[in-house]
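Support request, please re-run this one:
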Amino acid sequence: MSITYLEAIREAQYEALRSDPSVFLYGQDIATFGGAFKATKNLSREFPNRVFDSPISEDAMIGMAVGAAVEGARPIVEMQFADFSSIGFNQIINQAATLYWRTNVPCPITIRMPSGGTAGSGPFHSQSMEAIYAHYPGLVIVTPATVEDAYWMLLDSVEINDPVVFCEHKFLYYHLKADRIGDRELPIGKARIARPGRHATIVTYSAMVHEALRAAEELQLDGYQIEVVDLRSVKPMDTDTILASVARTGRLLALGEAFPWGGVTAEIIARVTTEGFHLLDAPPMRLNSKDTPIPYHPNLWKAHRPTTATIAAALRTLLRH
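Re-run finished. Output below.
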């Protein structure tokens, strides 16, 4: 029996509630309704008085979670969509992120952010916010790309004493399945080699890992072996694994679904050119979604974001250099 990415997130929350009485869930319509994507379905029945519906105020939601964390709780807050977290931006970056540094009191909250695009979701329900939050010290930014990581990294996030922004990709909820949840293998902050190679490196995260793997399969037909690095978390970022991969291949494509300006892909290239310029045999490239609001129409959305075809084309350009 297989388990989906979404089911893994639900199971992780179940396990967190079961194993730690200080954990509770908070979010809009998450109790009786089970949340916008049913990530908390039946959990309020299993754990009465520990799964709470919140007001429609992201600012109030995060503020309450910070206060609860100060008193020793470990809240998991569900944003209906990552886009809406901007309403709670002040609480996240000015309160949660700085609390320990101001007061020596930890702030162990986990903010689940359904991130990224799906066909027909449009500009208000498709954004990838990870680079915005990664800009601020004090926050941990997690971007799981596999069913196993969705489960284990959520449990790890709850155990961390820092506030964690958990960017779970909506497109993977039902599209990604695994036969089972394996054992915990890597900690947060450690990247994994999703596919070994020797001609070029793709560094990416979240749903783009799967587009990158498909592009690598396509390039293999031309005799190229493309290495794919799954960051797993963008802050902390595993620079050592990135540099080791570039040392093997000599070429770098930084890939992300988010907007290009000042994003994670820019940070990857900055680190490689600063710390590993001598490893490069070609100028590094990056590929992101277009620098425009995300379109509603499914065909426009497909043209807006990186796809297997556009990644393969970028790789061919990189390999020709």
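The longest strand covers residues 110-115. The chain has a mean pLDDT of 97.
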